[in-house]
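Notes continue from the previous slide.

Worked example: a multi-chain complex. Inputs as given:
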Amino acid sequence: MSSDFRLRINYRKADRGAFLSHLEVLHTVERIVRRAQLPYAITQGFHPHMKVAFGPALSVGTASDGEYLDLWLSEFVRPDIALAKLKASAPRVLPIERVGYIGNKLPSLTAAITIHAYRAEIWARDIEIDKVEQSFQSVRKSTSLEVVQKDKKKVFNPALCIPKDAVVTKNEEGCTIDFSLRIDQTGALRPEILLQEVCNRAGQTYSHLELVRTGLFIEEDGVWVRPM
Amino acid sequence: MFLSRHAEAILKAIVRVAENNRSSKKTDLWPQIRPLLYRVERPSRYIDSEWGVAEAQDYRVGLCYPDTYEVGQANQALALLYQAANSLDGVSGERIFLPWIDLSDLMRKEDIELFTLESFMPVSRVDILGITIPYELSYTSILEVLSLAHIPFRAKYRDDSYPLVIGGGPCVFNPEPLADFFDAFLIGEGEEAWKEIISTDKTMRAQGKTKQEILEKLVGISGVYVPSFYDVSYREDGRISTITPTHGAPDRVYKRVVTDMETVAPIQCPIVPYVDVVHNRYTLEILRGCTRGCRFCQAGMTYRPVRERSADSIVKNAIDGLRDSGYDEISLTSLSSADHSQLEEVVRRLQKQFEGSGVSVSLPSLRVDAFSIDMAHLMAQGGRKTGLTFAPEAGSQRLRDVINKNVTEEQLLETVERAFKAGWRRIKLYFMIGLPTETDEDIAAIGELAGKVLRTAKKSVEPGQRGGITVGVSVSTLVPKSHTPFQWEPQATDEEIHRKQRVLRDFMPRKGVNLSWHDADISFLEGVIARGDRRLSPVLEAAWRNGARFDAWSEQFSLKRWLDAFEECAYNPAFTAHRARDYDEVFPWAHLSTGVSDAYLVAEAKKAREEVLTQDCSFDSCTGCGACQTLDVDIVLGGEKRQ
């Protein structure tokens, strides 16, 4: 409804929250909003429910430093008051960071966000980071990348879906890899699948991998902009 | 002889492993658990951090539900006892669930002990451990909990450094098969007694008292049963001869009962799970007890008398609970919610309160009468008409009279007609087979009744809508339970049940009825455990050693493990399940009382044979069961006591 107030909410999937599924995050956010007693708008139809739209899903096991959702309110609530109420109603693994009203005509989060930035912690004490870096570059420069995701073969164009080279840093347990992926209508390359491919090609093995999504961006004339 | 020595050796090995691990004093197992969570299904059930969890205090009360998080977290009793523990100064609750097989196996491989959720501490290091005993088929899961926690199975092998292990819940009215594994049981309603047990243990532990001294004190708390304080002797024919109290324990332990529901808070700020648990909604218990008097029903005998919360209290608690939890659904629960004397008022007030908010109100069970349909209609206003569920339990009027199910065929068909005219298109009917005095004609009557329900439903809707009508018929097997008028009855054998199921299938309409029945193997085992005595404990342990755990999950259940266990222990399960008892037999639970007199149960058993009905004392005069007088408690309707 055009008369509703569209509140964009920035939250994190912190610490143990990494183990929540997208559906569990959805249900938890709805409960946070109800506990906060915000005047949320209700969809029309046979099964009326809270009017809320989420950004791109995050897989189980992946934490995030910055996720977004849009919540429609039926009455205006001052952003500082809405933020305070939401913060007080959220479990510690899904902390609410910022809120702000945005225009109702702006595209949805899933349509607008195309860049997903990640940080991977890789447990492999003997890892050779030069080889990992070179392998990443080689994968990125290739014209076709065939991977198996959810038991299905998929082909991606690395030149399009890997916008930058990775930054690989050695640490005590192994290494940290900062990288980003571009997601469009052709599909989403899963970050853990990409890293597995990179390490395989580099002849490197690891015992364990943990992922954090460090940012979500909208591309505007070649510039990466945060959704709020 | 060889088997018992073998079992003893295993137990001693478990004790040694446990002692070694306890001495290592691991306090936070999260760093060890965390990497495993990337390798298991639904890891969010192991992360704690939900809304509503309590901060850890010095004295930690372990509250265990011996099944997965999804089943246990939804359990109301556990939530009430968690709340009761957290209400005490310096005390906090620590939830414990049985990890699913993928994580359990990884934990065993990595030698990681079972953990509590709030502090991720080893379960063996909580100050007191309460374990819910929800169902006979959960017994091997209880052993799995103790094993994963590195706690010796048998109470006599646990020294003072271990927490007291206290059992509670629906199965404690015959806890004898588990008697060797628990230090004590809490018989009956726990909100008040649990706090008394915790306070006693906390105080006496601080004073350096021994486990034995604490148990001797605990038997003074109403509802507490310490099995090691009773000696049981047996006759040559296998029946029990005597049950003799020792250590100053009472001759008979009477169940604990809350006399006024208004004095115990409902679940105020429940833990709100991330995972989609089995009942994912705010639940509010609106009444306790049911006196309809169905003769097969253990809950109907053990939770007497009826005590309602008042309408004002229900409405206030519902508003507060939904606000504090953020749920969008509330369920008004009890053994028979439609029996609440002010239910219509409650539902109307709640619907007015939550109008336009997307919050829905639900009832878990309905009676077969017109009031229930009016109520269901009221509940469905503005929402979906989901399936209706009714339990006639028997197909013929004669057999319904035997079991004291005060429902007539006319009432059922009238209810069906009204429901389908009001827009419902699905109905499910619950029946039982293996009932006392049952004949093949009674079984055939189930099929005939299902056919009548189907025809009535079809007649009640427009011809174009008749294709969408579904009648579900679910048939379970009677498992005679302790403390019921059928406790003397033999349970039907597997062969007999399979034959009855074939008769049932022959008489069931071929089209329009979906027939399902319970696994006869599971019912048989449930029956053996339900009326078993202390001699069953080695069998439980042998079954667990054979791999039994999560027996209540049908895909995990294997009768062979149990049959092997019976054989290993030279235990004849038919003696427990299929034998008719004399009225003067000493039952394994003879020293435990629900308040209902033995004379009443005998009278009801005889009335069943005579096909004579007994009325509901909540609405008619006292039927003389003795619960109110024995337990000094009154029926409470609409918040007012009825003498």
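Summary box: Chain A is about 25% helix and 35% strand. The longest helix of chain A spans residues 22-35.
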